[in-house]
Amino acid sequence: xxxxxxxxxxxxxxxxxxxxxxxxxxxxxxxxxxxxxxxxxxxxxxxxxxxxxxxxxxxxxxxxxxxxxxxxxxxxxxxxxxxxxxxxxxxxxxxxxxxxxxxxxxxxxxxxxxxxxxxxxxxxxxxxxxxxxxxxxxxxxxxxxxxxxxxxxxxxxxxxxxxxxxxxxxxxxxxxxxxxxxxxxxxxxxxxxxxxxxxxxxxxxxxxxxxxxxxxxxxxxxxxxxxxxxxxxxxxxxxxxxxxxxxxxxxxxxxxxxxxxxxxxxxxxxxxxxxxxxxxxxxxxxxxxxxxxxxxxxxxxxxxxxxxxxxxxxxxxxxxxxxxxxxxxxxxxxxxxxxxxxxxxxxxxxxxxxxxxx
Length: 358
Ligand code: SAH
Prior knowledge:
46% of the residues lie in helices and 12% in strands. By secondary structure, the chain is an alpha/beta fold. The chain has a single domain, classed as TIM Barrel, CATH 3.20.20. Strand 4, helix 6 and strand 5 (158-160) form a beta-alpha-beta unit. The termini are far apart. The structure holds S-adenosyl-L-homocysteine. The site of S-adenosyl-L-homocysteine has 19 residues, from loops.
């Protein structure tokens, strides 16, 4: 059976059933993938033009209390060399990034108890004080509602917290018993309620993942309606229980990017570093499949190799300035242009305007 009609329906009505998504994922072929990508790229262009938004990623600590089975900076990976950036170092990364055209800074790290809520709030306030025209995004894991509310009050605009998988049994296969899927989903709902532009997402091809799990991830996104979605292939990491597992594939990730764009036309969708790691032109291919964000690294060169979520991560030896030259060329090679702007989600902005809160 020809599955193009399902892609057409997704394009028009932005939704499909669990069985329909599962069928698409289980029976994807090259032609279907190309068809979905062309509609998805057209959709991204309709809402955001040829623009590709950049986010300056500051990986400020690789110390983590959690022990996720897939992650290279998990607590029990003794071979990880741990580091923390000081407030001065973090602010200097942002300063440097600002001069290069970044208008969003993403503070990402392990769940490191050293950075108390007060320290995080102080950092957010400083960043917003130094760069009032920039957005600050946090990606520091699961916190209480009170903590999320404090960060928001301090000025944080956005929060990235991938749900990792919408199938609780698969979640248990990827995480130790101390972590729960329900808490992760609850955190995401809280972030939305607090008015963050919220990012959910998942890994593609994580050990034990089935097409119906991915289909469930899509339905989860459809229900949550996050402003951003981060997906990338699972890549095995040394020193983890999944070190010998195969990586997720480029094609499956590209197809999912296209499905997500068709389901959520206004979503901000990065072509992730993991995608660039499994294929030298992975990020460009991601842009051609519906993505419209890239998140280069602004962390100091000295610590980049240490934020090893997975093996062979790209861009670990470059200065931020070199990264941006290289990225600009990559973006232009696929007929797109780098945007110097905050790159807010347009639907989020429109709703805020209606509520007079901008
Ligand atoms: N501590 C933060 C940031 C986690 S790192 C948090 O909990 O949100 C950001 C993302 O990297 C994770 O959400 C996960 O989806 C991804 N990641 C971790 N290990 C990975 C691996 N081995 N391959 C691909 N992606 C990985």
